[in-house]
Specification:
Largest sheet: 6 strands, parallel
CATH topology of the largest domain: Rossmann fold
Shape: globular
Number of domains: 2
Bound molecules: D-glutamic acid
Structural class: alpha/beta
Number of strands: 10
Number of helices: 13
Order of helices and strands: EHEHEHHEHEHHEHHEHEHHEHE
């Protein structure tokens, strides 16, 4: 494949998700790194990714990462577990050397996994995630590399992302599907004391998830772990830090129409933002 000429000036940090979910991560990152510039890209036109094949998720993710590189991002965070599970490794190992070996793409599974060892006492952990993330086995594999004594039980929740993307996360109907998957997960392992929300869309369902998770079981949402890990990454990589501009701005892009994106994005962010529609 031919080499794409990418801008070399310093630029914003790119945050990518298949849709709105990455906004929950962006919010946390901006809270701990307010001085940085960010560029958010949601592939809302092709969401959900969670029910798609490995190859399709990889191709879509690579297109979005290449787009963010082309728009000036030296560093892109895959704020999507499905993309982190299915595309990150290949992009890091095969595509980055070809596109520009000095840029970086980071995922969000590793920072979440690193936190788990200290959070579970029973060493039985539950995972609520998309079918793609659960099937990839990325969570159990990564957790067991660091903590071989932890048992991870996964539950695929194929309908949760569509519920959130269609603005139904607060509806009564959503309760039915939330309850069903929480109960199914807990029935598979009664010793679970920690549940990972392994999809960036799920914090939007948190109130409902809490309703069906018994007291005493900790629910881990990723934002705080991903944001502190990124801050640490910048401290450890001054060469990358120097390439990330610091003006406190954030620009939003969607592959859908802006009219569709903005009302839902405002719910995720609790504030009104501007966005542009782009094609890949
Ligand atoms: N938000 C993405 C994740 O964290 C998945 C959404 C989707 O299925 O597209 O897995």
């Amino acid at each position: 494949m031919s080499r794409i000429v990418l801008p070399q000036n310093p630029g914003p940090i790119g945050i990518f998700d298949s849709g709105y979910g990455g906004l929950t991560i962006l919010k946390h990152i901006r809270a701990v790194m307010p001085e940085y510039d960010f560029m958010y890209l949601g592939d809302n036109a092709r969401t959900p990714y969670g029910t798609r094949s490995f190859q399709v998720v990889y191709e879509f993710t690579l297109q979005c990462v290449t787009k963010l590189f082309g728009m000036g991002c030296p560093l892109v965070i895959l704020a999507c577990n499905t993309a982190s599970a299915k595309a990150l490794r290949t992009i890091q190992q095969i595509d980055l050397p070809r596109l520009d070996a000095t840029r970086r793409v980071l995922g969000i599974i590793r920072p979440t996994v690193e936190s788990i060892g200290e959070l579970t006492k029973s060493r039985h952990v539950g995972l609520l995630a998309t079918p793609g993330t659960v099937k990839s086995l990325s969570y159990p594999l990564e957790i067991n590399k660091l903590y071989p004594d932890i048992k991870v039980t996964g539950e695929s929740c194929p309908i949760w992302v569509p519920l959130v993307e269609s603005g139904e996360s607060q509806s009564e109907g959503a309760d039915f599907f939330v309850r069903r998957h929480v109960e199914s997960l807990l029935s598979k392992d009664s010793l679970i004391d920690t549940i990972i929300l392994g999809c960036t869309h799920y914090p939007l369902l948190l109130d409902k998830i809490r309703k069906y998770v018994p007291d005493g079981i900790r629910i881990v949402s990723q934002g705080e772990y991903v944001s502190s890990s990124l801050k640490l990454y910048m401290e450890r990589h001054p060469e990358m830090d120097a390439r990330c501009t610091k003006g406190g701005s954030c620009r939003y892009y969607t592959t859908e129409s802006v009219d569709t994106f903005l009302p839902n994005a405002s719910i995720f962010l609790n504030s009104v933002v501007d966005a542009d529609s782009i094609s890949l």
